[in-house]
């Protein structure tokens, strides 16, 4: 008994001693630890959310998808060649105090190409630079396609057109960091130029970054940002309600609760997500999908308005075709998919399957998270079109591998953009040569338009090509567009200039806590 | 005694070996491919997939992977985490290792003290209002699942009253609710056992003799009754510890505590097999060790057991 009472006494003493978090540290939730904290191996969303505030590239984008120049003051296409000349920003310093110059740009790109650095997503963005093959093979460490003109001017040449290169999220790192801190530098310091620098990572608890007082565009107004690792959406919501978080990235399992709670209306921020969602129909696996009328009938049998209300409590947006609001090259005036059950029946009958007769049974496949949605499609298509659709819940990695191999006939899935230009969706999702074309829809006219766009530097001309290509996709019903869930955040009223964007969180450069 | 302890320690090795083989086979049988999980949306990138497979040795035949894994463990190397780039499993587990055993032991200690006390009181005051009240609380503590209790307590103390934090780890006030929730079922279990055993013992002749000798009631209860129920109570400790291990999975998830339980769940979802396997091994070792301690405690309490324990 003595022990118990003394244990309680210690606990109560502890309660009195608890130190509140500094009021000027922004506390925000992430669902897991970042897998890495450096811009070379960077390959996943959570790491990106942290690293974006620590490292910078040539450009960045605003919450509405406008490109802004960051470490590149300007750039011009190299006349008669595939490539760009970049004029770099002057008077920029790394967190180490060393000046940012052209050699750091070259070093970063060489690290991304090198065979032994475990380079992540960035490796794909430098893949077209001249000399990458040699660096990958290990015969040289230097990229022959990069030429340092002077400290603040650099030229990059490609083996084929790569007009979006300036907006790729390639984040530059301090080329002197390994010499100063050793190969393990990433555990103790950050090597970027961004508004925040690495402070502490307690695995499973939080990652904290602190203001870079010497930031070239002026020091942030808060002391730092603490990304709290909270896997459970419910726990995160409770922590926000109890004042333990200033900014809540709302998870899908609590979305409806947050949307229905009128008391949270003022703190709620709802924006479209940079994620193109579709119902894939692979004609190589299920022959009736070869007929455009079958694909169209399926699309017309889906009541998207009801889905947006029922599944998302209105926290979702309707897509026209492939592109999403907030990326350059999105057109809001394209025709939206129609809901017309009677028309759908007629189309299916014209295709030779009146009342669904003659259609072999088909599985609709996705991961467990989407099982309600799968059930909805299966019921709706059976009720309206007489199709026999079986729900098939698959393990995620097996499912993705199946889609990539073109083995899955019928599935809802999405594609999240890596940068704010519609090319990301248009080329990767539906060009017939793309490894990510999971529905295996193939259209020569579409391919030709995209191929032309890839080599078109001028934005307006390129966007016009996107528009034509997206119309081809819509008219041929490459896949049935699905509602895209919103990104939803709750932000305390005393926090200003912090926002959720189609891509996640905006950089917290100007964030203030009152 | 020493021979007994050494013998039991030696017997841990085959137990761990069986668990090792079983978990290794289980990770093989699970659907999902760690490389595909690592690559996420980019799993069509065959070149990167092949590179990762080679790097983690996943392109080798199964027996070879197993041999390398066992070889590593014998030298204290549990391999590299699949999920955290360039971080060894041992380092991933380090922090959790400071948390979960502490949580479980705190709950065990607190549960044993409170439970025994409540059980003794209930037994002494049997068939009175006190007894009924204690039994009611016990039944509730045993039958309401801990995640329900946790949700209620968080709502009451953290959100409505605002006196305790909702979740997290690192400060003392963050330990109150998790320890409390782990303690409730173990305390209830121990109290129920204590009450039953006490009632039985209190009816024995030697208790009547002790009372007849004129010993005071506290001495009768503490020295004569309680000591005799220690052996069956201790047996239950081993079982309770097993329950506490699974309890940490739930409590650490609800309270967002970076312990081994939450880590185990996260690592299974992330297909971080080296971490998941190491945690299973660790929990097995804890469980076996606690049961060993229980057996040693038997021998200390009851000399008769000491004689029977060592194999001839």
Fold and architecture overview:
The complex is a heterodimer of chains A (514) and B (312). By secondary structure, chain A is an alpha+beta fold. Chain A has a domain at 275-485: Dipeptide-binding Protein, Domain 3 (Dipeptide-binding Protein, domain 3, Roll), CATH 3.10.105. Helices cover 30% and strands 20% of the residues of chain A. Chain A has helices at 2-17, 45-51, 102-113, 121-125, 132-137, 177-181, 233-241, 255-260, 292-300, 304-312, 341-350, 371-385, 396-404, 423-430, 444-454, 459-476, and strands at 25-30, 59-61, 67-69, 72-77, 83-88, 146-150, 153-157, 196-202, 206-211, 224-229, 247-249, 268-271, 275-281, 316-317, 362-366, 389-393, 410-416, 480-481, 484-485, 487-491, 495-496, 500-501, 504-505, 512-513. In chain A, strands 1-10-9-8 form a four-stranded mixed beta sheet, with no helix packed on it. In chain A, strands 4-5-7-6 form a four-stranded antiparallel beta sheet, with helices on one face. Chain A has a three-stranded antiparallel beta sheet with strand order 11-20-12. In chain A, helix 15 runs antiparallel to helix 16. Chain A is globular, with a radius of gyration of 25 Å. Chain B folds into two domains: 2-92, no CATH class; 100-257, MetI-like fold, CATH 1.10.3720.10. The longest helix of chain B is centred in the C-terminal third of the chain and has 38 residues, at 217-254. Chains A and B meet through helix 1, helix 4, helix 7 and helix 13 of A and helix 2, helix 5, helix 6, helix 8 and helix 12 of B.
């Amino acid at each position: 008994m003595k022990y118990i009472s003394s244990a309680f006494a210690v606990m109560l003493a502890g309660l009195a001693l608890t130190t509140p978090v500094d009021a000027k540290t922004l506390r925000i939730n992430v669902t897991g630890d970042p897998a890495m904290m450096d811009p070379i191996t960077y390959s996943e969303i959570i790491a990106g959310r942290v690293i974006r505030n620590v490292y910078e590239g040539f450009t960045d984008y605003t919450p509405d998808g406008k490109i802004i120049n960051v470490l590149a003051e300007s750039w011009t296409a190299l006349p008669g060649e595939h490539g760009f000349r970049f004029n770099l920003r002057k008077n920029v310093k790394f967190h180490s105090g060393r000046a940012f110059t052209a050699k750091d740009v070259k070093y970063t790109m060489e690290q991304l190409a090198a065979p032994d650095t475990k380079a992540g997503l960035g490796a794909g963005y430098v893949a077209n630079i001249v000399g990458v093959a040699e660096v990958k093979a290990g015969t040289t460490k230097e990229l022959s396609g990069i030429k340092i003109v002077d400290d603040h001017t650099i030229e990059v040449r490609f083996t084929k057109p790569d007009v979006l290169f300036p907006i790729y999220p390639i984040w530059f790192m301090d080329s002197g960091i390994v010499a100063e801190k050793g190969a393990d530098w990433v555990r103790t310091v950050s090597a970027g130029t961004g508004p925040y620098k690495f402070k502490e990572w307690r695995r499973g608890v939080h990652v904290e970054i602190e203001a870079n007082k010497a930031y070239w565009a002026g020091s942030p107004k808060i002391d730092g940002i603490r990304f709290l690792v909270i896997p459970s959406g419910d726990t995160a919501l409770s922590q926000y309600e109890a004042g333990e978080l200033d900014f809540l990235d709302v998870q899908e399992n609590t979305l409806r609760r947050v949307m229905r709670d009128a008391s949270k209306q003022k703190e709620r921020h709802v924006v479209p997500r940079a994620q193109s969602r579709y119902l894939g129909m692979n004609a190589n696996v299920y022959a009736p999908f070869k007929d455009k009328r079958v694909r169209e009938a399926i699309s017309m049998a889906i009541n998207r308005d009801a889905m947006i209300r029922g599944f998302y409590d209105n926290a979702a947006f309707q897509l026209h075709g492939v592109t999403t609001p907030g990326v350059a090259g999105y057109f809001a005036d394209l025709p939206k998919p129609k809901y017309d059950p009677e028309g759908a029946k007629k189309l299916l009958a014209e295709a030779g399957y009146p009342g669904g007769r003659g259609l072999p049974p088909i599985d609709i496949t996705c991961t467990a998270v989407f099982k309600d949605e799968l059930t909805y499609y299966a019921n709706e298509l059976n009720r309206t079109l007489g199709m026999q659709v079986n729900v098939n819940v698959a393990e995620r990695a097996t499912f993705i591998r199946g889609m990539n191999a073109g083995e899955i006939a019928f599935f809802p899935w999405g594609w999240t953009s890596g940068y704010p230009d519609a090319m990301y969706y248009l080329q990767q999702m539906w060009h017939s040569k793309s490894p990510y074309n999971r529905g295996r829809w193939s259209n020569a006219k579409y391919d030709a338009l995209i191929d032309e766009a890839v080599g078109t530097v001028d934005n307006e001309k390129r966007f016009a090509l996107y528009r034509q290509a997206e119309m081809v996709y819509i008219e041929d019903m490459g896949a049935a567009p699905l509602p895209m869930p919103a990104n939803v955040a709750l932000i305390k009223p005393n926090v200003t200039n912090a926002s959720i964007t189609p891509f996640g969180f905006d950089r917290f450069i100007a964030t203030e806590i009152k | 005694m020493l021979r007994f302890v050494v013998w039991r320690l030696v017997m841990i090795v085959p137990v761990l070996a069986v668990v090792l083989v079983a978990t290794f086979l289980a990770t093989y049988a699970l659907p999902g491919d760690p490389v595909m999980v690592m690559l996420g949306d980019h799993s069509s990138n065959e070149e990167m997939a092949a590179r990762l497979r080679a790097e983690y040795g996943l392109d080798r035949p199964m027996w070879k992977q197993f041999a390398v894994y066992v070889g590593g463990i014998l030298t204290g190397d549990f391999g590299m985490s699949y999920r955290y780039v360039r971080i060894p499993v041992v380092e991933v587990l380090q922090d959790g290792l400071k948390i979960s055993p502490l949580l479980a032991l705190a709950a065990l200690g607190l549960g044993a003290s409170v439970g025994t006390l409540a059980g003794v009181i209930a037994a002494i005051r049997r068939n009175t209002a006190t007894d009924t009240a204690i039994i009611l609380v016990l039944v509730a503590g045993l039958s309401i699942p801990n995640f329900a209790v946790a949700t209620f307590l968080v709502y009451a103390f953290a959100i409505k009253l605002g006196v305790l934090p909702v979740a997290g780890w690192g400060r003392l006030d963050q330990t109150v609710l998790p320890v409390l929730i782990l303690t409730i079922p173990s305390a209830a279990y121990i109290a129920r056992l204590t009450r039953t055993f006490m009632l039985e013992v209190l009816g024995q002749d030697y208790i009547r003799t002790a009372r007849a000798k004129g010993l005071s009631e506290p001495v009768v209860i503490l020295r004569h009754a309680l000591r005799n129920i220690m052996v069956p109570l201790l047996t239950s400790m081993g079982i309770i510890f097993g329950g506490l291990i699974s309890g940490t999975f739930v409590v650490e998830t609800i309270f967002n505590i970076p312990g081994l339980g939450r880590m185990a769940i996260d690592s299974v979802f992330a297909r971080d097999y080296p971490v998941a396997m190491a945690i299973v091994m660790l929990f097995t070792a804890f469980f076996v060790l606690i049961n060993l301690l229980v057996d040693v405690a038997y021998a200390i309490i009851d000399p008769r057991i000491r004689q029977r324990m060592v194999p001839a």
